[in-house]
Amino acid sequence: MDLGTIIGLVLGFGLIGGTIAATMVNQRLPIVVGAIKFGMQAFFDRSTDKTEMVPLIIDLAAKARKEGLVALEGEQIDDPFMARGVRMGVDGLSPELIKETLAGELAALKNRRPLHF
Q1: pLDDT score of 101
Q2: pLDDT at residue 100 above 90?
Q3: Among 9, 19, 35, 67, which one is most buried in terms of CB atoms within 10 A?
């Protein structure tokens, strides 16, 4: 490595470290922690691939048709949003209420601001 590369790396790390330190000094701890979590989500997104959910939905629908909604009670569903919807169906809520509840939850998730500056 040449001297310019080394100096550039040192200055880059100093800039990033200084930015993080200045943020930690100026903001409350919950905001800093929320910003770190938000930043980590940008790089390590653990969202479920929607194409992987299609076979699961088909299997759940077939099982519910054959055995009834109560048969879905013991199913392992990794997606929390989908699991909540299935749980509401198993609990006997009307389809309209389930749709309304989940639509409201989606709207709240879209409008939510994890960081309050």
Answers
A1: 94
A2: yes
A3: 35
Asked if residues 55 and 29 have their Cβ atoms less than 8 Å apart, the reply is: no
116 located within any domain: no
End-to-end CA distance of the chain: 41
User: Does 22 map to a domain?
Assistant: yes
Instruction: Report how far Cα 65 is from the mean position of its chain's Cα atoms.
Output: 30
Which SS3 state, helix, strand or coil, does residue 72 take? helix
Number of domains in the chain: 2
Q: Phi and psi (nearest 5°) for 79?
A: -75, 115
Structure tokens given for 72:
């879905």
Handedness of CA 77, 79, 84, 86 (dihedral sign): negative
pLDDT in tens, 47-80: 667 788 888 889 999 999 999 888 888 888 888 8
